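Hi support team,

I've been running sequence recovery on a batch of backbones for a student project. Most finish fine, but this one hangs at about 90% for roughly twenty minutes before it completes. I'm not sure whether the input is malformed or the queue is just slow. I've pasted the structure tokens below so you can try to reproduce it. Let me know if you need the job ID as well.

Thanks,
M.K.
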């Protein structure tokens, strides 16, 4: 009778096919799960109850498990699967809602959570993943993917609202979120990234740092938001065709030759150390915003762009700051409508006529802060 009961208990769990049989169960982990030891030496974690009832918070860390098979688990408050060096398989096909961390499982190369739709916190890090499936994820308060050295592509086709951070994924070449309409995207040190798909993002923030081979940033639907780019040496194009209100900051984009924000009416623009940038066009900008009391100096800041020759903002009427400094090739700064400014700083532009800078200062009806016009081209002449 004891042998029959044991066989019945083992058969409840199974060993995942491939003609494996169960040798032993280690029951009552105290968290609604059971470990099954199989005939081929593998160790599988399964739900103690077939419907996975009783699993609320689950930490699987520092074990010798080879697989985690929680086939009927639909919701869990917290799931942590980390530091399991022999783990090769994680099966969570029914999980729809959870906070999850899956990290540093060196043998895990594929991760699929095809039913997951809503998360507060999901972190996937420090693994040798080549495949990641989050095909139904729609909202994520925090999604972080980092230090996955073999992951080449991430597609989140149904994600509509999220904070997404991807950093230090050395092989990541493509990141696509075609349904994302609102949120924050933060990408840092993804050295192989060449494709970024954010075609629906209408309101939000995009931060890009040290993604050195990314050739272009296109945000065709962004109307309100913020874009910050730094250390993207291969960047040749920035397209924000419908951005009307927002903040744009581009630094150290060493292949960018032209910069235009055709629709921006209210916002601030910062362009720094873009070595081959030749022209800046802000045809619709009327108000340059900023508030030094909050740390956002804002306004128009264009400095240390060694090839820059022309800057045009013909509709700009008022701004917190105009800072144009150390642009040695600059010959034209067109701000014909500017009337009030918080601070005006036009300095060390070796080929920009000093007399034009002085004429700009003279056209203003109000300067609430400092005005400095110095070390521009004093030999150039200006028409009366």
């Amino acid at each position: 009778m004891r042998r029959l009961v044991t066989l019945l208990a083992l058969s409840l769990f199974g060993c995942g096919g491939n003609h494996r049989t169960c040798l032993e169960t280690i029951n009552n982990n105290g968290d609604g799960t059971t470990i099954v030891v199989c005939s081929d030496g593998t160790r599988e974690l399964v739900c103690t109850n077939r419907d996975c009832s009783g699993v609320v918070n689950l930490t699987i860390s520092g074990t010798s498990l080879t697989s985690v098979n929680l086939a009927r688990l639909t919701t869990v408050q917290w799931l942590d699967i980390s530091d399991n060096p022999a783990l090769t398989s994680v099966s969570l096909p029914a999980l729809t809602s959870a906070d999850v961390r899956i990290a540093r499982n060196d043998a895990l190369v594929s991760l699929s959570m095809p039913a997951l739709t809503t998360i507060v916190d999901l972190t996937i890090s420090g693994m040798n993943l080549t495949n990641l499936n989050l095909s139904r994820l729609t909202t994520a308060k925090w999604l972080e993917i980092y230090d996955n050295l073999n992951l080449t592509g991430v597609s989140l086709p149904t994600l509509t609202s999220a904070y997404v951070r991807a950093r230090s994924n050395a092989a990541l070449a493509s990141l696509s979120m075609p349904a994302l309409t609102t949120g924050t995207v933060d990408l840092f040190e993804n050295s192989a990234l060449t494709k970024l798909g954010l075609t629906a993002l209408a309101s939000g923030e995009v931060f890009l740092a040290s993604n050195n081979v990314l050739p272009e940033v296109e945000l065709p639907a962004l109307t309100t938001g913020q874009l910050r780019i730094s250390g993207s040496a291969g960047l040749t194009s920035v397209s924000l065709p419908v951005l009307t209100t927002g903040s744009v900051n581009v630094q150290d984009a060493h292949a960018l030759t032209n910069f235009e924000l055709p629709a921006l009416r209210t916002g601030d623009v910062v362009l720094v150390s873009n070595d081959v940038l030749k022209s800046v066009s802000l045809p619709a900008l009327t108000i340059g915003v900023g508030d030094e009391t909050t740390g956002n100096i804002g306004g128009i800041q264009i400095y240390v762009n060694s090839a820059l020759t022309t800057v045009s903002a013909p509709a700009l009427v008022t701004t917190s700051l105009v800072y144009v400094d150390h642009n040695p090739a600059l010959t034209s700064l067109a701000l014909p409508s500017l009337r009030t400014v918080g601070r005006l700083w036009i300095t060390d532009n070796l080929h920009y006529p000093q007399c034009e800078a002085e004429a700009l200062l003279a056209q203003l009806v109000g300067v609430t802060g400092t005005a400095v016009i110095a070390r521009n081209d004093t030999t150039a002449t200006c028409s009366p």
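--
Follow-up from support: It reproduced on our side and the slowdown came from queue contention, not your input. The first helix runs from residue 2 to 13. No action needed from you.
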